[in-house]
Amino acid sequence: MTLHVGIDVGGTFTDAVAIVDGRAIRGKAFSTKDVTTGILGALGVLQERAGLTEADFFAAVDRFVLGNTIVTNAVDEQKYAAVGLLTTQGFRDTLRIARSARTDERDPHDMAAPPDIVERRRIVEVAERVDAHGTVLVPLSDDAIAGAVDSVLAAGAEAIAVCLLWSFRNAAHEKAIGQYLDKHHPDLPYTLSSELTPVYREYERMVTTALDAAVKPLVASHFDQLAAELRSRGLRARVQIMQVHGGFLSVEETGKAPISMFNSGPVGGVTGARLLGQQLGRNRVLTADMGGTSLDAAAIIDDEFRLLPRAEIGGLPTSLTAVDIETIGAGGGSLAWVDGRNLLRVGPHSAGSTPGPACYGKGGTRPAVTDAALVLGLINADYYLGGTVPLYEDQARAALRKHVAEPLGTTEDAAAEGVYRLASSQMSNALRKITVNRGHDPREFTLVGFGGACGLFAASIAAEAGVREVVIPRNAAVFSAHGLMHADSVFSAVQTSPWTMDQPAAVLDKEFATLEQRARAWFDAEEIPEDRRELYREADMKFVGQIFEVTTRLPAETFGEADKEALRRRFVADYEEEFGAGTAWTEAEILLVNSRVRAIGRSEVQAVEQVAGVGEETHELTRRVVTEPHTGERVEIDVHRGFGALGRASGPCLLEEPDTTVYVPTGATVELTGSGDFLLRLADR
């Protein structure tokens, strides 16, 4: 027996999936502050449901993939290790000058400095200088290195970021600092920008380097604890960590650049949705991952999710390439409140897992979205997580009454209806941003909704955004964990190497060949078989005079003079796909800025024949009175358990699963797909 295990650590729950002999087993546990305890709790649920002893369970695991929130939480909450920054003399205030203090809305009343990563007293200038061509203008002395390191350590630095001007053209000075730290401070974590992100744009490169160094001590401590706990239980498989770019790396590789773990859990859900779309024959898919604290949305077009070459992390622009995920602070634990203008608000603050929504009975007194759904009758208080977690409607009503109904002068039911509708509207905005705002018609997409809370809201979110077809995976509550297992190993090597069409093709081909050497070394280190290796050449390109680039895939494994025209045509097509037909500035010269090689090691995961228990279901039908969230009417509707034995129904109705509930509104239909998932078709508005 072999087990494949995926773990997704969320803000409220830690989700787990195991595939054993073609059957998917799922489990959930409350997330914990130390993260490891929550992971072990979820693994304990899997072990129990697999019917194995602890020793047999961990010995059977041969694939273990983890999506972790430790970096995401550290960035979002701005709780970093005390990081010091070494930079070129004269550039101490690069992080504070930034790109500007304005928000996207350009509201003059909302201008603010970017959040601090490094305290200014821990930013030390180094006497050195390299020019834009990589020529050394001011040599770096050993005394300058020692003095700078001593200064930053005296200021209390627990980790060091090194970002020198033009180091991506000549990394000698940064490497010298790294060698000094290895020799004199071997236990001190540090990050060199020339190794992490050797690309131009000084500010983004410095932000990325500083963030990476700032989270290194946190990640190292967490991984050491987790690894020790797993080893003590008999795990022999390598732990693999999901990355922001849509693939996973080993713990060892992740430790070299932990900032790439940002948003790793939501990326797993996008990967799973792509696989599900392929199985259903849908080539345009939207994802809605609604957990306890947020909703994450992404678009998949022609089996590809969009990658951003300059991802924003924690409100800061970076030079990381990341899966394009739109996040909004609305989830099952998002708190409802009334602001100073007497307007109802939902989020962005969350009740989390402790104390959680008021209905959890764990001390929470503020109403959350889950409380509203319970008051509306959409959640069965006696069957939450299969009846393992009791809910208390009286406490949910008390919280809604005090914090929403009384301030607005309305009833508890009306307050709950308002919270539901406002949360749905906010979440539908995320879908509009990745469709309408980018020139895509949402009516052409299928929404895949997952996360423990999404089944109650997916139809409402889709209808408001204009989507007419919704799929709720049978394992929706743990879908991101399921997707993690089906991700590929991905390694990306990038280098700023400006090139124009009037230069020899051999110059560009040489740059790519150098990057491919690094990629092949990674293949060997990760022991990826030859038949599962893939290499892709990509380039960040723009018309001369423009600020930002569009990423284009090169047409051949080797690049020759005959390939120039094909590259130009492909770039123009990609540009107009991004910005609209006719927008390409074809009269201008084209500049290739960054060369990139993506190395992919295709995964081999057990095929899932069915979700455990689906083929053995017995249909149970009951009736329950609920408040229809869009009309406020009290109606009696069907409640189905064991829907797999029924296969088709019309709304309004509820489908109750042990770890999720699906609301099918009036006018919609629901049926079971061949893989056992729920397919909803909505009525035209």
TrEMBL record:
Q: Show the GO MF annotations.
A: 5-oxoprolinase (ATP-hydrolyzing) activity
On the tree of life, the source organism's domain of life is: Bacteria
Q: Where is the Hydantoinase/oxoprolinase N-terminal domain?
A: 4-183
**InterPro entries per the UniProt record, alphabetical:** ACX-like_C, Hydant_A_N, Hydantoinase_A, Oxoprolinase-like
- Where is each Acetophenone carboxylase-like C-terminal domain found? 504-672
Q: Which residues form the Hydantoinase A/oxoprolinase domain?
A: 205-489
Recorded GO CC terms: cytosol
Q: Which GO terms describe its biological process?
A: glutathione metabolic process
Which protein, by its recorded name, is this? Hydantoinase/oxoprolinase family protein
